[in-house]
Amino acid sequence: MASRAPCENRSVARRPETETPQLRILPLEPVPLAVWEWAGADDIPPLLFAHATGFHGRLWDTIIRALPGRRAYALDLRGHGRSGKPAPPYHWRSFGEDVAGMARALGLRGAIGIGHSSGGYATVLAAALAPAVFRSVLAIDPTIFSPERYSEPKLDASFTLRRKNHFVSPEEMIGRFRERPPFARWKPDILRDYCRFGLLPENGHFVLACPPAVEASIYAESNAPESDIYKEIATVTQPVTVLRASVIRRPGAVNLSASPTAPDLACKFRNGRDVPLLDQSHFIPMEVPERVIEEIQKLLAADC
């Protein structure tokens, strides 16, 4: 990597609203995967973002716009957004393998990885699988349960199969969700991005870019024994910040607003840091994006 100019020379208030990312489709095997690439300098660490189950890469727009000057990549994980959608089941390790494979395909080294929920799980696993790719990780309420949870019965995710899957327009989806929990606590621009890019046109209407059957499979496999990555976590040497909600998800039915993160997860890393957020739900990037930006800036400052 080329020598870096002083960090203060990179300071710009915000990316202009007219700046948009380029969509790239990576022809990976066995699933082609989409990534949204934001322009930035090549001589400073890039940012790599991975979203939660049922979401997509454009949910990071608000946060990326507040971090100008840096090249940023926001992934659509398999089954989501513009990426390929193989038939279920969806095994969690495949998401970590996808993140590592996409990072290698993009030629990334020394990146800062930011992942939310299942994207946090995937980023942590990718840091173990491809250590040269990542210099540090911000895991935002990652879906990494306490070890005993991986021996319990699979979660009941049948509720996702009842999701409304046909919309006249993104505006209809915004109107439907605006006053509903958990979306009522989201920043309006982030809800807008969720709906605009979370739908795909189909036969004169729009359908969810993460099909309900895919989402159900992901939730059902979340605590499968093979999803346990504590052996890989023990090998991660990069600094890892665990930013987590304070209300813990209990065994049984899925409460999507509660935290799935093991309370002591940070101490399982060789270089972990625990940052609990009181009064925040699982949807930290959508509710308080400024806190996510603050933690990313701390990681960036460590490179100065």
Structure description:
The chain is 26% helix and 17% strand. It is an alpha/beta fold. The chain has a domain at 20-150 and 227-301: Alpha/Beta hydrolase fold, catalytic domain (Rossmann fold, 3-Layer(aba) Sandwich). An eight-stranded mixed sheet has the order 1-2-4-3-5-6-9-10, with helices on both faces. Strand 7 and strand 8 (205-208) form a beta hairpin.
Output the keywords:
304 residues, Rossmann fold, two-stranded antiparallel ribbon, 9 helices, 26% helix, disordered N terminus
How would you concisely characterize the structure shown here?
The protein is of the alpha/beta class. 26% of the residues lie in helices and 17% in strands.
